[in-house]
Amino acid sequence: MSATVKILFDRRGQASKTQAGTVEIEIALGGKRKRISTGIKLYTNEWNNGRIIKRIDALALNRQLDEKYKEIVELVSQPGFTLDAISTRVRTRSFCDWVDEQISKRTDLTERTRASHFAMNDKLRKTGYIKTFKDLTPENIRKWDAYAHSRCSQQTAVYDYHKKIKVYIKEAKLQGLINSDPYDFVKISKGKSEGIKYITEEERS
Predict the structure, then answer these.
(1) What is the pLDDT of residue 77?
(2) How many CB atoms neighbour CB 112 within 10 A?
(3) DSSP H or E run through 97
(4) What is the distance between the alpha carbons of residues 39 and 24, in angstroms, rounded to a whole number?
């Protein structure tokens, strides 16, 4: 029995010209289905006959979609493929590499902010606490918090370590890459601003 793969847009019928819907890839096998979010969100006027249109980044997004589709097709073509193989592949994928991809394709960031997100993700990668999606646990978030405290003198700076990474963990959950957000079980204080304050070079970076 062979699996079938197809691209779906706005499966839940929630998209409009003002509200974005998600592009997903669906794998069907033996009467069961598995859907994977591509991370691409579009308005209804930006999708036509399976292609992304009327966007400055349409070419890049279509290429990204084609590559993801090809990757899945190759995976389901392997002997002994099961739908569980999709979940295993996601759990063992590099989280930090995925975050780099998300940062690169965001259109709402200034280049300075984008660079600061890349820098923070690089710090997370170097700690080795979170290598794959399965490492996104409350315990590892606490380790990241301890690391931030070792590098920063103020809680507001520590919170910034979490804020930049937290947004991508939330996106991973929205895309169905993780079942729960570890930050739901770990509360991080924002700290209090102390007005004008000179910060260390480490906090600045």
Answers:
(1) 86
(2) 7
(3) helix 95-105
(4) 8
